[in-house]
């Protein structure tokens, strides 16, 4: 029967491993593990190399010394001096040839070699300069709009690319301290404050699209000129100045038709399409704005605006990463660009119409008086379509909407124009014919709020088509001459889906504002957007506020 004998193990009360001397049993046999160094090992330790012959391995090191290795000197490779003394490197370099064996080079060939070396040096210098400029541009971008990433620390997932940067964080937008659209007076009392990003998330109003009824048609319409469908960037058409047409951005309380409807109690909420579309899409706004809300004793609401308000002018690149600022070129400030874009939009809407096919509506233009001296001016070809929307819970909204033309004699259209003031990387003149989708996608990013308002206005007016023109300056330094580079037709409902605008969500926003005013006392209120924060505030103001401006 085999037996198993337990080997002798020397105890070590002072540490780990076999001791150098067995103090308990001095006559014990010498262990084969005697004097063997002990290297501690933990399962959480990060292993480097299996054998380190250089002793200089610094793998898996970081600034926080998290993965530094332990210096186990006993396990490091030790060089044998005798073996090292007998080791010699073999010189594999070719022997230098004497001057007598050099090949004769003609002077012409020598000059060619010299010219070739100069070209190489210049090429290296140019490449170095280009590389430096590229690095400087990347540095400026990193400290500017591209300094950000999905991850923190060393840059995250998007480091060095469009959405990321070296220092982590969100994409940096140029800091602009804007002024409020109207100064808050000491006698104004704040009654509400809401954060725009949370409005949609915390929306509890119904998203049901209300039914609509036509109340009145005023003005006249001209037919669309099909020749503008064939415009290309290679054969652009100059934008004409329509100096004999009069446009009427009349507010709610100055509209005689809405005043008559209010007296007849046709509805209990009154506004215009410009104001209504602004409130519907206000969560996309960046620039400051203000509106006036008046509540009568019977609960009737009037959504109004001031004379020469910011709502009378379009915005340019409002939602861009680098929006226009008041610094630098005076011609490209937000105010000047807004005035230019408004003029371009009005001229475009009239130029694309035929002059000999006019359709008169039930009533003439309510803001044009033929008996007055109009100095050769006539009203623009616009149809004012007054509509009533049933929002439920006893809320009926009367709104003045606008139509701009007729398509195929039985379809109504709205017309708007996008303006390119400085050619960017996506130059319209180069891309509009072949990549109109890319151009539109870039405009959706830079003018998200403006395009959403145009879409809401087209839906409110019941337009069958929405015409969008792409207009560019003749030269970047000339803000008074423009060219039409192309036009596109879109169905408003399809375009709303393309720019991620929900019609039900827009009506839920209006229901929210109406419900907010339901519990307020009668009087005048001012709804303002903070100039530098995504916050809207409601102030209760005296009844004579803004009356002296008229």
Strand order in space, largest sheet: 1-17-16-6-7-5-11-10-2-8
Total number of helices: 11
Order of H and E elements? HHEHEEEHEHEEHEEEEEEHHHEEHHEE
Uncertain ranges: 57-71, 138-173
Shape: elongated
Tell me how many strands there are: 17
Structural class, from secondary structure content? alpha+beta
Strand content: 15-25%
Gyration radius, in Å: 39 Å
Distance between the termini: 120 Å
Largest sheet, strands/sense/barrel: 10 strands, mixed
Mean pLDDT: 80
- Which percent range fits the helix content? 10-25%
Structure report:
A hairpin with a 5-residue loop joins strand 6 and strand 7. By secondary structure, this protein is α+β, with helices and mostly antiparallel strands. The relative contact order is 0.13. Helix 5 packs across helix 9, helix 5 packs across helix 11 and helix 9 packs antiparallel against helix 10. It is built from 11 helices and 17 strands.
Summarize the structure.
The protein has a ten-stranded mixed sheet, sandwiched between helices.
Descriptive labels:
550 residues, alpha+beta, ten-stranded mixed beta sheet, five-stranded mixed beta sheet
Please specify the SSE layout and strand pairing:
Elements: H1 81-85, H2 107-143, E1 189-195, H3 196-201, E2 211-224, E3 237-238, E4 245-246, H4 256-263, E5 269-272, H5 273-280, E6 290-295, E7 301-304, H6 334-351, E8 353-360, E9 378-379, E10 383-392, E11 395-403, E12 405-407, E13 411-420, H7 428-431, H8 436-446, H9 448-461, E14 465-473, E15 482-490, H10 492-498, H11 503-518, E16 523-529, E17 535-541
Parallel strand pairs: 4-9, 5-7, 5-11, 13-14
Antiparallel strand pairs: 1-17, 2-8, 2-10, 3-15, 6-7, 6-16, 10-11, 12-13, 14-15, 16-17
């Amino acid at each position: 029967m085999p037996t198993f004998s337990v080997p002798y193990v020397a105890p070590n009360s002072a540490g780990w491993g076999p001791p150098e001397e067995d103090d308990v049993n001095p006559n014990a046999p010498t262990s084969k593990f005697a004097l063997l160094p002990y290297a501690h090992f933990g399962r959480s330790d990060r292993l480097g190399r299996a054998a380190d012959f250089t002793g200089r391995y610094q793998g898996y090191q970081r600034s926080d010394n998290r993965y530094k290795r332990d210096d186990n000197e006993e396990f490091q490779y030790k060089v044998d001096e005798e073996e090292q003394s007998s080791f010699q490197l073999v010189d594999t370099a070719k022997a230098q040839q004497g001057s007598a064996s050099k090949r004769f080079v003609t002077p012409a060939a020598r000059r060619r070699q010299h010219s070739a070396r100069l070209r190489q040096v210049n090429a290296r210098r140019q490449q170095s300069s280009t590389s430096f400029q590229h690095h400087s541009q990347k540095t400026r971008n990193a400290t500017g709009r591209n300094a950000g990433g999905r991850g923190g620390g060393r840059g995250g997932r998007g480091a060095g690319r469009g959405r990321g940067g070296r220092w982590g964080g969100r994409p940096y937008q140029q800091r602009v301290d804007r002024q409020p659209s109207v100064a808050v007076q000491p006698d104004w009392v704040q009654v509400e404050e809401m954060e725009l990003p949370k409005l949609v998330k915390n929306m509890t109003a119904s998203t049901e699209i209300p039914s609509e009824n036509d109340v009145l048609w005023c003005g006249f319409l001209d037919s669309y000129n099909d020749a503008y469908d064939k415009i290309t960037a290679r054969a652009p058409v100059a934008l004409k100045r329509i100096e004999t047409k009069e446009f009427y951005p009349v507010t709610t309380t100055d509209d005689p038709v809405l005043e008559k409807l209010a007296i007849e109690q046709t509805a209990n909420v009154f506004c215009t399409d410009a104001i209504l579309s602004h409130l519907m899409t206000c969560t996309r706004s960046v620039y400051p704005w203000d509106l006036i809300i008046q509540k009568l004793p019977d609960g009737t609401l009037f959504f109004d605006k001031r004379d020469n308000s910011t709502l009378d002018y379009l915005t340019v690149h409002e939602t861009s990463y680098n929006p226009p600022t008041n610094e630098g070129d005076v011609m490209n400030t937000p105010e000047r660009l807004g005035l230019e874009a408004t003029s371009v939009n009005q001229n475009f809407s009239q130029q694309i119409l035929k002059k000999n096919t006019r359709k008169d509506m039930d009533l003439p233009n309510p803001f044009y008086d033929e008996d007055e001296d109009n100095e050769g001016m006539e009203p623009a070809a616009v149809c004012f379509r007054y509509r009533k929307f049933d929002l439920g819970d006893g809320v009926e909204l009367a709104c003045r909407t606008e139509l701009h033309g007729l398509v195929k004699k039985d379809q109504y259209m709205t017309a708007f124009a996008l303006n390119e003031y400085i050619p960017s990387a996506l130059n319209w003149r180069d891309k509009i014919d072949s990549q109109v989708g890319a151009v539109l996608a870039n405009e959706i990013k830079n003018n998200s709020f403006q395009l959403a308002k145009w879409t809401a206005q087209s839906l409110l007016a019941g337009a069958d088509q929405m015409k969008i023109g792409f207009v560019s300056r003749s030269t970047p330094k000339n803000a008074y001459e423009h060219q039409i580079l192309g036009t596109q037709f879109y169905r408003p409902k399809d375009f709303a889906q393309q720019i991620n605008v929900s019609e039900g969500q827009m009506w839920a926003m209006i229901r929210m504002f109406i419900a907010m005013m339901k519990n307020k006392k009668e009087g005048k209120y001012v709804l303002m957007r903070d100039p530098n924060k995504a916050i809207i505030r409601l102030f209760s103001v005296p009844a004579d506020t803004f009356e002296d401006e008229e």
